């Protein structure tokens, strides 16, 4: 059975394979969104403008009062959701566990397709993406689903 665990925040998502709900994780993919790590000041200017998502496919306006870091976080959530959707259609996983910082977990949920949401067996709102792989398991329930 192909079980995936994604551990993420607004700047990094780490993807793991696991044999069952109690086994160790094997990391196989990491997505990084450096813009989410930038200071707000470097992401904005005095006037509103346009921005592109990281794939360059979408274009949207950023208003002066809109938080640029929040927008970057939404862009990254969309990027992760697209990766998961593509992987789902290629039958690369059969179950999915999502572990994400609380605010980012909500953004990710908003971006996931209904088909991907049906693959989720557990969600945990924890900000642990910075941890070493060997330490992740001890910060989650002994049985993930």
What does this entry look like structurally?
- The chain is α/β, with parallel strands linked by helices.
- The chain has one domain: Nucleotidyltransferase, domain 5 (2-Layer Sandwich).
- A five-stranded mixed β-sheet has the order 3-2-1-6-7. It has a two-stranded antiparallel sheet with strand order 4-5.
- A hairpin with a 6-residue loop joins β4 and β5.
- α2 crosses α3.
- The longest helix is centred in the middle third of the chain and has 22 residues.
- The radius of gyration is 16 Å and the shape is globular.
- The two termini are 14 Å apart.
- The model has no long low-confidence stretch (mean pLDDT 86).
Short overview:
The chain is of the alpha/beta class and 145 residues long.
Count of runs of 4 or more consecutive helical residues:
5
Question: What name is given to the CATH topology?
Answer: Nucleotidyltransferase, domain 5
Shape descriptor reads globular
Rounded to an integer in angstroms, the radius of gyration calculated over CA atoms is 16 Å
Summing up helix and strand content along with how strands pair, one would put the structural category as alpha/beta
